[in-house]
Design goal:
The protein is mainly α. Helices cover 53% and strands 4% of the residues. It folds into four domains: 43 residues, no CATH class; 174 residues, no CATH class; 135 residues, no CATH class; 32 residues. Strands 3-5-4 form a three-stranded mixed sheet. A two-stranded antiparallel ribbon has the order 1-2. The longest helix is centred in the last third of the chain and has 29 residues. The N terminus is likely disordered. It comes from Rosa chinensis (China rose). This is DUF247 domain protein. Keywords: Membrane, Transmembrane, Transmembrane helix.
């Protein structure tokens, strides 16, 4: 076991162990070990084991996307114009927005200029407050990568730049305070494409700041506001989707971890409130082991929308709101509408990556992706759901089908929330009478002319039968 570990320790010092992650340090330690005696190597190894810590402590809620997911579509997890947090800090292509962050901070701390309100804090006093309150230590513990390439001052500088930039961005958005005006030199609001890029970048799993950091700066910068921060953020992202009603700002008591977590919570909260079947089973005395055993495995894949339609299943457009509130009752599939465009894929992929990484996150978005992939196999299924106003597709039918088919590749699903629904769909689909009834309806009652022709043929058949009866009756019953 003489090779380097994933998390290397620095110089052998029992009092101050230093984490080193860079490749150069690992190579240096390899060379040092080659010159060690067996006893020295043992002592060094024992010391490294004694100070080893979990690379993913329980406080982690902001993760690097696992490579097994990233390889599916790398651009869906990578920022285009702005870095938030430590993971992508310093990338050359993000230089423009780094300058904008500094300019935003300068405007914030300057005396009143062009009607903008300045904060009473200075940069030095703000830095000291963060150190005294140990905000940086709490924030560092939220990242799966400990980011030891940033010392305390660098990390605090990042928190101030990114945190203040986000709060000012949300406050300056057109849907926010009417008394706050965008600066004439502001490139974000002077270039129409910038907000679209920001919608993408600010919802990446790797591009997050802890929520308590944002709340800290919001309280300092906009202490007089009557709006909750979660409401301000949701308002900002309403223009990032075609139907803003899918976002909910209810229940302010729910703990938020970061912006992506807020968006996920706003999508699934209504569904979580209405669906507490597992909790009901626990309350009724059913052992938790039985519940897990019952829910871990996915049910058999259900047929596609076109196949179900041929079997008599009716698809109905549900009310706007929580997209997870899908129902199947008496042969009717009720599905809330969903708009699909270029922005939908990255959002869903990052939400699902978050569910895969964070242990306290139920796989609700992933379950939704699995169910929709079941229903959509080809462009025929997409066209059917578009006709029923369930899917508003801004892509081609083939691209929309591929979007759902590839969405949850290499993911796992625990506690699949549509297990019972899928079982009911299978029972309905396997009933022979349902398929016969739908075939009769499709072949003979599809159009008004087909219906008229069917009844005309039926009447003609009855008349022919009666004529035959009256013709042969005298032969068997002569007068």
């Amino acid at each position: 076991m003489g090779g380097t570990s994933d998390i290397e320790k620095g110089e052998v010092d029992e009092s101050v162990p230093v984490h080193l992650e860079r490749k150069g340090h690992s190579q240096k330690k390899k060379k040092q070990r080659k010159g060690m005696t067996v006893e020295e190597r043992k002592r060094t190894f024992n010391l490294e084991i004694s100070v080893a810590e979990s690379p993913l402590p329980f406080s982690c809620c902001i993760f690097r996307v696992p490579e097994v997911l990233r390889r599916q579509k790398k651009e869906a997890y990578t920022p285009d114009i702005v870095s938030i947090g430590p993971f992508h800090r310093g990338a050359k292509k993000l230089k423009l927005l780094e300058n904008v962050k500094k300019w935003y901070l300068k405007c914030l701390f300057l005396p009143q200029r062009q009607g903008q309100r300045s904060t009473a804090l200075s940069l030095d006093s703000l830095t000291e407050r963060i150190k005294v309150e140990e905000l940086d230590k709490r924030a560092r513990g939220c990242y799966s990568d400990p980011c030891h390439h940033l010392d305390q001052d660098d990390f605090i500088e990042m928190l101030i730049l990114d945190g203040c930039f986000l709060i000012e961005l949300f406050r300056k958005a057109p849907s926010q305070h009417e008394d706050i005006r965008q600066d004439n030199d502001d490139p974000i609001f002077n270039m129409s494409c910038m907000l679209e890029y920001l919608y993408h970048d600010l919802l990446l799993l790797e591009n997050q700041l802890p929520w308590f950091v944002l709340q800290y700066f919001y309280n300092l910068i906009d202490s007089g506001s009557s709006k909750l921060l979660r409401e301000v953020v949701i308002d900002f992202f309403k223009d990032s989707v075609s139907d803003f009603k899918i976002f909910s700002t209810r229940d302010p008591k729910i703990e938020i971890l970061h912006i992506l977590d807020l968006i996920r919570t706003s999508l699934v909260h209504e569904h979580e409130v209405k669906n507490e079947n597992v909790q009901q089973k626990q309350d009724s005395g059913v052992p938790i082991t039985n519940i897990k055993k019952d829910l871990v495995h996915l049910p058999q894949r259900i047929p596609s929308a076109a196949s179900l339609s041929e079997a008599g299943v009716e698809f109905k457009n549900g009310t706007s709101g929580c997209i997870l509130n899908i129902k199947f009752e008496k042969g009717v599939f009720t599905i809330p509408p969903l708009a699909i465009d270029e922005r939908t894929g990255p959002l869903f992929r990052n939400l699902m990556a978050y569910e895969q990484c964070y242990i306290s996150c139920k796989h609700k978005i992933t379950s939704y992706a699995v169910l929709m992939d079941n229903l959509i196999d080809t462009n025929e299924d997409v066209n059917l759901l578009c006709e029923k106003h369930i899917v508003a597709n801004w892509l081609s039918a083939d691209d929309a089908a591929k979007f759902f088919n590839d969405l949850y590749n290499d993911t796992t699903v625990i506690d699949f929330v549509y297990k019972e629904l899928c079982e009911n769909v299978h029972k309905y689909h396997e009933a022979t009478w349902n398929r016969w009834r739908e075939k009769l309806k499709r072949d003979y009652f599809d159009t008004p002319w087909a219906t008229i022709s069917f009844f005309a043929a039926f009447v003609l058949l009855v008349l022919t039968f009666l004529q035959t009866i009256y013709t042969i009756q005298p032969y068997y019953h002569p007068r």
